[in-house]
Queue: 3 jobs
Job 1
Amino acid sequence: MSGIFIEGGVPLIGAVTASGAKNSASKLIFAAMFSNEDVILNNVPRIKTIMDDIEVIESVGGKAEWVGNNTLAVNGSQINSYEVPLEIGEKYRLAFLLAGPLIFRFGKAFIPKYKSIDGRIKPVNRFLETWESLGFNIEEDENYIKIINDGDAKGSTIKFKNVSHTATDNSLLSSVFLPGESTVINASQDPEVDDLIGFLCGMGAEISRVENGDIVIKGTGLFNGTIFEVCSDKTEIAVFATLAVLTRGNISIKNVKRDLVLQFINFLNKIGVRFEFSGDDLRVWRHGEDLIPQNIEISSPPGFIHDWQSLATLILTQANGESFVHDTVYTDRFDYCLDLNRMGAKIDLVKPSEAGMVPVISDDAYSIEEMGEPKTVAKITGPTKLKGERLTVEDFKNGSVLVLAALTAEGKSEIIGLENINYYFEDFVDKLKSLGAKIWEQSD
């Protein structure tokens, strides 16, 4: 695995431009396969996960070409198969989002069952429930899920027990071409979902959100080419805002729409951090101010989202008092706290009831009755001085928080597994260096 060394304790100062959102661009690439005309996507991050999505569409004949540094031309006119090759589809979970365009073209889609790194097949129950609600026939064998339209599929009501971003994407892509009207109840309100809605409407669809956040889709059989700008990455914006806070720096983040990060900005305001907007620029700075402890609940949009959970936890290690971060979305996403504690943080993982809170579980597969109350609350005592450590990034989900902790800490840290961060963030290390971060490669 590749690695870097970081000398912490240096205030980061300067300007950086937020890249496009991977979680938006990925879905738009698959949605573009409805059209036989060129689709132009601007502000697409050039990262490995996007290259993986391109590999999936190319495996069935789709075309994608970089026509600019962050501009991608995509076309589905040469798609020639309804079956995603096993060696491709089993590696990438988002291959399931190709089902809609393939059913639209061929009346059926054969999608490999996604296998995690350990080889286990991951459940896709929300996808299956959506396809069944719309009237598709589902067949399964050892390797494939086969979704077939025998002519009976039509618009319907799709209701999710718990909010799911990817399941909402799939419901849009699986219903937008069906006759009649579909309604998605308890739909995700992520801005990337709104990107997908706007993109499909630009191709000729008729989709709208109603007042309570549900989505109404009127089916169409004609999809045009279009030009679309991918929204900025709300996680990357929060990462650089966090760096300004932790390093006592002064960072201007360009290409920021206020609505993308409203809840994070509210959090900064509550803890006593200074910030200002100027057009699409967000400036965040901190000098000697003490940070105010907070109780944060992690939830689906429009709440404080899970992508910011680790950032809030890290920031609150520097707050003056006791804070709590309660994750109501996932039950097992506090692993990074072990590393932060090795660096000197004081974080205890406790059950919600132990912190005087009501346990909330959004994971359909988790049963409190059978599995017990999970430790989904981080109890944080601050402020604490962080010390440099040797840290290993196991995956991209919380990898950036270890880099941020190293930039905050006194002394030198070594970060192993940098490729797992590059999988998600575009030019991450280069952007940090441009702000004055002392980072060098292991071979330097």
Job 2
Amino acid sequence: MRTAKPLASVNLHGTQGAVLAMFATLAVLASIIALTAGGYWLSIFTSGFAIALAAAGTGLLYGRLGLISLCQFALVGIGGWVTLRVYHAFHVPFEICLAAGGLGAGFIGVLWGLPAIRMRGLYLALATLMLAGTFQVVITNWSFPNGGTGFLGFMGDRSRIDIERPPIASSDAGYFIYVTVVLALGLAVVEWHRRTKPGRAWALISRNELMAEASGVHLVFYKTWAFALAGVLAGVAGGLLAGCYGGLDGGAFTAADSLLLFAVAVMGGAGDWRGALLAGLMFRVPPALLNYFGVNGFLATMLFGAGLIHALVTAPEGVSGKIKALIASLEGRREDGLLP
């Protein structure tokens, strides 16, 4: 017979257990990748782990609030732009540039999200997709800062000046571990939000906004909070990508990429950190594998489209939801004495 525990104790234990499991999984996975991968594949996994941060924000908005935001990859580009501009303008430590990129993307996310705060479903999706399209047009004409002077920091056809990585992460393997640590901290922040007062408010808003408002939940405040957090995570991801490649290319931040990020976030699972990690890896690894074997990597977009439809129809919690259900089933069998 199972013994009931106080609700507060269960929540605390669950939060600590989830975070510890996340840290352990990331540590093991990062160790294996750092020891076995090199060169091209190490950069692929580094960028995948960075994009997992943006996927966590996308999953937070969709999984907790039911909001379809299709501008998160554009916010990754905005975060990368701010990170590079701050570095080339002031030559401050990488962490300060990274924080500036996160705050810049968070500010733009809130600024764009406020007019759309009363929107849901298709209308919100279209409004956020407009931001993604706007950024694509702007960055195609402006490009990313590469060491020049002035507001844009662009030097034209001259060779770019790469952003300097942190001294403790100057090598490719060291930088991959650095990105993993930042990812772990970001996912821990998201997990804390899911399991505390903001998460409960978001869940109530998702179920019924009128009931949430009647219960004393400030709709605008908590929706803005969610947009800000998702924007900061996307901006930090953009800064990490800038550090991975030394600079960024405007052609890599299309509106289609924002759609793709939402698709892999839903497929991976918008419910927890596992889904975000899977989404980041799906965003980068399958196209890289196809290219490696001489197949056009854009074929992965078609596969992701089919996968999104399958997830929405048959598995709304994504792959991570299936993993959680399997783990819960095994734990239940063990407690009932059916497993050793």
Job 3
Amino acid sequence: MDHRLYVKYNVPGPRYTSYPTVPYWEGAMEQDQWAEELSLQAHAHAAEGISLYVHLPYCESLCTYCGCNTRITVDHRVEGPYIDAVLQEWSMYRKRIGDRPLIKEIHLGGGTPTFFDPAQLRRLILGLLDGCAIADDHEFGFEGHPANTTREHLQTLYDLGFRRVSYGIQDFDPKVQDIIHRFQSVEQVEAVTSWSREIGYTSINYDLVYGLPYQTEDSIRQTLGVVQRLLPDRIAFYSYAHVPWLKPGQRRFTEADLPEGEAKRRLYELGRSMLESSGYEEIGMDHFALRSDALFQAEKNGRLHRNFMGYTTTTSRIMIGLGVSSISDCWTAFAQNVKTVEAYLEMVRAGRLPVFRGHLLNDEDRILRRHILNLMCNMRTAWNEPGSRVDWLDRIPEELSEMEQDGLVRLTPASVEVTPAGRAFVRNICMAFDARLWRKQPETSLFSMTV
């Protein structure tokens, strides 16, 4: 990566797991309005199947780098009531989406899903699947903490159809682990990886983060050296998002503790080089996969999809988020659940969908969303077909002309293609398509840096 371009384009920007991005959603979403829109779309696309995301927020300790919605506790008596509520929320959705819905994808995120006892997770999944059909090409996955994922967790979920597991590792350096308060040893990661393979999981992912406090090229080399030896199927190699105004836990360290500018760029380049030398292919943004993994095959065949769960190999327009703070998407509308456990439990127990905000997409939103999704997944998009253009797109050649001069995109009057050098700047490229961002420039910091 050219350092001059890094300095030029490293600005705050969205990660584009949705469009419009959450800060630009318009107004509160009434439960009845959301339920009606979801019902219409679920019936229209019933044959396509639906994705379920379940947010399990509990963690026994706070990882100070984390940007997720979490609840810290060592009291495991919270497990049962929370799963009761998730299943009750799902029953409310079942009444609105029709008989025997086709389940195409389930993902358990957090928090720490492996905070929950295997028996509770089994009760959750059986409850979700009761009375449903399961797609032949279904994809079930979960996130596990290497320090508390047991063989029983892995076997229980495998027996229920799970074949993907993602382990949050971030960095193996003891000094980095201490400042971010995230601890797992190489031995623990090696054990859970070995168990996963022995049981039969077909895709193992490691989450790694660069730009963490106290991180150096030596710590990246150490971490990636272990990764090269264990060779998981996929890697998510993320830039640390420093947003202490949103996540107070990040105030444990300051900007002075973070590698920035040229130092941070070198961490990424070193990590990417080590991954590519081990046979990993770059997928979309921030992701790498071996050629044998389904994520690589999905990108190669043009089937890569991106939603609030990140990159997936299955495309379904209906994604229902269950649990506190979860976001749902029915392609024409978004809805987000309340953000505190107490409010979530109260609303569900009262028989109300726990939605507190959302957004109904207009025609322009839907078209621009498709172009941004094309760029994030396929690194190209075009608007010369009927139904693929809106007036905003007339600006794109001019908006991206400087990026074209810098060798980051190839432009025609009705198309954009990201060059290999432009991959690292795909968020910046997508920002040119973000009409809502430009019409309402943020007055305060909303996003992490793009590179």
